[in-house]
């Protein structure tokens, strides 16, 4: 299923409103992240999701079901990972919720393992949280060889 490419979601229905966030490079060459442009309160719905539904994953898709992935390069596809995330992405309801108060300019972060069975690519995590897992995988996959070496070197 390919949703009409020129569809523009109406912010009035809770779809992401470009006035509420920006997608920007973290640092030159470091990849993009999503930053709040207003305060969010813990427990607040940040946005409903929309996008293109694909039968495969890419680096920026989120899993709806196995083999069903949502691609949204305007908003949710660029949420950064954190092992102590400040948003929860509900892929059944297609909603994003604030898990804590988020100040304007704060980056919105999610735990990729909360939605993905398998990642497009496993990666080392530098989120800095006290419970950082150090190497990020999907929830149904094992740490790969590179990850094992990374975790061993990290101690
Ligand atoms: Zn981490």
Spell out the blueprint of helices and strands:
Blueprint: E1 21-25, E2 32-36, E3 45-48, E4 52-54, E5 61-65, E6 68-71, E7 80-81, E8 87-90, E9 95-98, E10 109-110, E11 123-124, E12 135-136, H1 145-154
Parallel strand pairs: 7-10
Antiparallel strand pairs: 1-2, 3-9, 4-6, 5-6, 8-9, 11-12
This protein binds zinc ion.
Helical amount: under 10%
CATH architecture of the domain at 11-112: Beta Complex
| CATH T-level fold name of the domain at 11-112 | Beta-clip-like
In one word, what is the shape? globular
Widest β-sheet, arrangement of strands? 3-9-8
For the record, give the distance between the C-alpha atoms at the N and C termini, rounded to a whole number: 45 Å
**Low-confidence runs (pLDDT<50, min 5 residues)?**
none
Q: Which hetero ligands occur in this complex? A: zinc ion
Strand content: 25-35%
**Average pLDDT rating:** 93
SSE series: EEEEEEEEEEEEH
How many helices? Answer: 1
Largest sheet: 3 strands, antiparallel
Rg from Cα: 16 Å
CATH class wording of the domain at 11-112 = Mainly Beta
Q: CATH H level of the domain at 11-112: which superfamily?
A: SET domain
């Amino acid at each position: 299923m390919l949703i009409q490419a020129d569809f523009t979601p109406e912010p009035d229905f809770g779809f992401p409103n470009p006035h509420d966030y920006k997608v920007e490079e973290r640092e030159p060459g470091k990849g993009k992240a999503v930053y709040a442009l207003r305060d969010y309160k813990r427990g607040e719905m940040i946005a409903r999701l929309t996008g293109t539904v694909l039968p495969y994953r890419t680096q920026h898709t989120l899993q709806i079901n196995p083999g069903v992935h949502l691609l949204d390069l305007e908003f949710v596809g660029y949420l950064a990972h954190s092992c102590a995330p400040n948003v929860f992405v509900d892929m059944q309801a297609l909603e994003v919720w604030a898990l804590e108060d988020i100040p304007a300019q704060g980056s919105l972060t999610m735990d990729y393992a909360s939605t993905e069975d398998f990642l497009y690519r496993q990666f080392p995590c530098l989120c800095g949280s006290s419970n950082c897992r150090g190497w990020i995988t999907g929830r149904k996959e094992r740490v790969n060889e590179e990850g094992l070496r990374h975790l061993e070197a990290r101690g």
